[in-house]
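On clarity, I found the account of how folds are encoded harder to follow than it need be. An entry of this sort, consisting of the sequence and the corresponding backbone structure tokens, reads as follows:
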Amino acid sequence: MPGLNVLSRWLLLGEWRAHPVRALVAIAAIAVGVAMGFAIHLINAAAFNEFSAAVKSLSGQADIQVAGREPLFDEAVYPLLAADPDVAVASPILEVAAGVPGQDAPLRVVGIDALRAGFIAPDLMGVPGDGRMLDVLADDALFLSPAAQSWLAKSRGEQLRLRSGTAEVVLRVAGPVQRARAGQRLAVMDIGALQWRFNRLGQLSRVDLKLRDGVDRAAFQRRLGAQLERAWPGRFTVGQPNDADQESRTDNMSRAYRVNLTVLALVALFTGAFLVFSTQALSVMRRRSQFALLRVLGMERATLLRQVLLEGASLGVAGSLLGVASGYALAAAALHFFGGDLGAGYFPGIRPQVAFTPGAALAFFALGLGVALLGCLAPAWEAARARPAVAIKSGADEGALARLARVWPAMVCLALGAAFSFAPPVFELPLFGYLAIALLLIGGIGLMPRAASIAFRLLERLAERRAARYPVLALSLARLANAPGQASIALGGILASFSLMVAMGIMVSSFRVSVDDWMGHILPADLYVRTVDAGGTGYLSSPQQAALAAAPGVERIQFLRTRRVTLAPSRPPVVVIARDIDAADPARLLYLVGPSAPIPPGARPAWVSEALLDLYGARVGGTLRLPLGGAQSEFFVAGAWRDYANQSGSVVIQLADYRKLTGDATVTDAALWSARAQGPEAGVDALEQGIRALPFGAALNLMRPGDIRAASLRIFDRSFAVTYLLEAIAIAIGLSGIAASFSAQTLARSREFGMLRHVGVTRRQVLQLLAFEGGLLTCLGVLAGFALGLVISLILVYVVNPQSFHWTMGLHLPWPLLASVAAVLVAASIATALVSGRHALSGGPVRAVREDW
């Protein structure tokens, strides 16, 4: 046994010393896949946990929360809750997102009753200065969290201006918030002052309840829910701050996004698995005679199998350890520079810190090791099963790869992949879609030996007539046609990397072009107006709307009002968009998809986004109940439209219906068409000047459609920055794998080149031979990779994306990108073949063939 251990170490270290670059490339591929997957897991876990903790900190020790299905509800329900005999303390809460002049994000302002909130949410209490205890009840004072103080550069005693409508509310910073979480931007003030200052008199956001000792929370929740449903049908939700619905709502916000990022990271790991396979397959082919000699000298088949598996496992262990360490460092850096949402905007206002999780680290380590073992399983099995008498002979390499040419396993994978692509989502995730992509990749790689044999034999026949004129090309085709197994190893690497690049490039390009086309359709006006600062406190009153309509240069104007409502407690709110829309021609303003339904006389029409069709089961021609104006109002679903702005769903209704149901005459946006008497641009310029001259013109933000589209595409590119990074990494790994495969095969053929030199082939002709082989192999791999990538992109565009994000898109092929990457692959393959060929020919023909003498 000690002798076998020494032999095993000798074989392992000898292989690493002989081909260090090839081993390092395989280790790097596994490390990148593990690092990206582990980093994305750590980032999302940190952001999710911090966001959940920040939400829970606002609830404090509340046992039950009563919230409205609309953002605000009448405070008339509060006396009923406070007088309940099972309730010890009832704390009213009002939250607004107040615009801050000069800032592009709103400030979250929480209004509390200081005499009650201290018993439930002490973390929300402000800390007044010495001798100013009454500031917690003052009508001009608010308290800022440390993150908000830093963001706004305000300290105790300074004034802070916030937006209410188009006017400004001047408040005094009275001190810090008691115990706000790191990165949590919020302000706290007296609830009565907040209602008065921001025109929210008589309105609340929720009521936090602390129950008396001994009261069963679940039973109380059921009783109170039934009581409120009888008194105000469909108006309130009753839940526990830490219940499953709250966790599910937070989880649903970003689940599809982080799952897709994780799958993209595993793409690099898949490429790493194939590189391990190619590394071990080439190594086993090169050492077949050595292994056969060991078998003749008494090494058992199981021992040889373990040896090859040990070599692959060593790559996996090294790559996984490096990947786990790099993933932690990458997560820490990403959280520091990009935040917990990686630019997607799911977790605003938090500053999470990365925490090392041993369980997840062990899982990703095992995944990397398992991928490495899976990659070397086939070469190990071949090495163990080879007959020593055959394997010890030179030139038996292609026979070792004969099993790779079997077609039926690849066809089974392709058939299963095609079938799974039509499967429905599982837990609202396209799990079968991802499985279909994996099976298509495996099936495509499995077909490469047969495809290479057919393609190069056909080219060989076509080139037979000109063999005398182009002997090097004929020799290259003969080599590729008669050694398809070795060619397929390099082809598999090209196929894996290029097809995934094609698929991701088409998907991202299709999404970007679809978003651009969508914005071009829904932004038909010449100018768009809203209050300057982001937040829910900005609005335009009826007199201001009239002044806008009467401004010089306005030919036509349309108004829009948005409001968030809750249709299901376990899901994020749905956006209700009330706008001036012609029910007879809604396609002028909406990007309609699918057939529309005729609106029955007297019905209120609504047009739902694709997300509502998937998430809530809405159907065109059916009805939908929306909580508006304190009641459940029924709408007729007249059609479905594409909405890229609201992943959780949106509903468009007529502004007149909204005002009739809610009594709210304010709007948040306006779309204006200019008279264009002096030409399009001059007309818009005159329109802008006329609006700026209005008394409230300084409080308005004016944007042209082109500016909105440019800003939206910048946000799109920032959100997909991680996707672009993962795609670039996959391409880099693929190029490294191609280089390693070509280099290894070229160096392994030094005796073949020496024999060619002996029969009169010049050094230049051998290099031309290698260049032809590299170019032809890569061209075939690029063609096959494009075909497979196009099929995978169809699954991404028409299956994975709709099942993940609940919207559809058109198909767009980025030809410049695809052609550029294909050219780089071909050039890299030819260059690698030439460099490796020069090295293989450096020893001279006599030295190269000495083992055959």
